[in-house]
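example protein:
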Amino acid sequence: MNTLRVGVVCLGRTTFDVQAARGLYEKTISELESMAGVEWIIEKDLVIETADAEAAARRLGTSGIDGVIIISGTFHLGHLALILEREIRRPIMLWAYNELPYNGGKIRLNSVCGVNLNASNLYKAGNDTYFCHVGDAINMDWLAALRMKAALHGARIGLVGSRAHGFFNLAPDELRVFSEAGALIDYYSPTELWNAVPDRGLAAQMDEAVGSEFDCSGVTAEQRGKVANLAAVLKEFCDNNRLSALAVRCWPEFAAQYGIAPCAAMSLLQSRDYLLACEGDAEGALSMLACRAAGAGTPFLADLSQVNLDEDFALMWHCGVAPVNLRDGICACSLDTYFAGGKGVTADFAMKAGEVSVLRIDSARGKTRLFIAHGNAEHIGKELKGTYAKVRFDRPLRRLLETVVYNGVAHHVAMVYANHLEAYRIFARIMKWQVIE
């Protein structure tokens, strides 16, 4: 997880209890500085006058921060947040402290009103990306959303080949992705993978891993060797090209030209914290990157494949590419050749039970949307080929399916074992993307 750089400012006004606000702010600073994974750029003194705000804005504006927290320690001048906004131009969290007990009948902080003032000013000035929070501790969902934005900015997404044959809906809008998210999509020829010769030691390590992770009795020794070789190639390819994630056109040419489909190799490597999307789905790869940045662990690119409207559950399935570390630990985990005329060499296992959320960064009609949903995966057992989870969503499945199909959402989503729905909503707000849920 990359380290965030976050600016922090506390605003105040001497007509309120600034001494109490200073005490609260000192406590906040102590709590923030104890957190791992964030470099805090903190204005230690309260910002009260416009000159204070201008000086703070100059310092924060040149510090390379990913976002800024503007705390309304008390009510304050409306100029202050606008000055910070003008100079910094980064995502903002407006934070109000809980009101303190009254002292002599006078409101002491009026902090929420300060946030209301700042929000109204920012909104009317054209800023729709700020987030408001009331409480005595920082909002962790905003930090997660900020991590998601930071992960996409400067990301390099590799696309081997193109999107899969006929999957027009997976074609990325490359310059929109760059303009809105700051990520670059680079294309590579499949022959760069097919013809690559990996380090022998690494290939041997991968072969040992294939044998320990999977029951290989259903494939030949040659096919097992190709899985290990390809896993090593993919690792070196991602490392050498400094890729944040990789999407691979895995059919129809891959099996015919290389001898196996890449599914099992991708399953193995994804369990080692590499992000690999099948079927050339670059926006799917971007979705996986965003999910991991939120702190969700290993993502799984899945299809909403089968729906049981009577029993209200869906099968989140794919042909055999899910990260092997997401297996349920009960059923056998094996390699199979059912796909691509016996050349598939896919991973076969049921996935673990637990709370899940799904996310899809999806472009359509000149706009970028964010599809999100939440549910629970249940134990299902090994009943079919491929990798899959049985999920009951929070909303009736019929309504969820209608939401997907009538909004034209692509048929791949990134699924993770966590609930980051609120972080996803804040992320969409920061990015100015429509939320579909």
Notes: DSSP finds 14 helices and 18 strands in the chain.
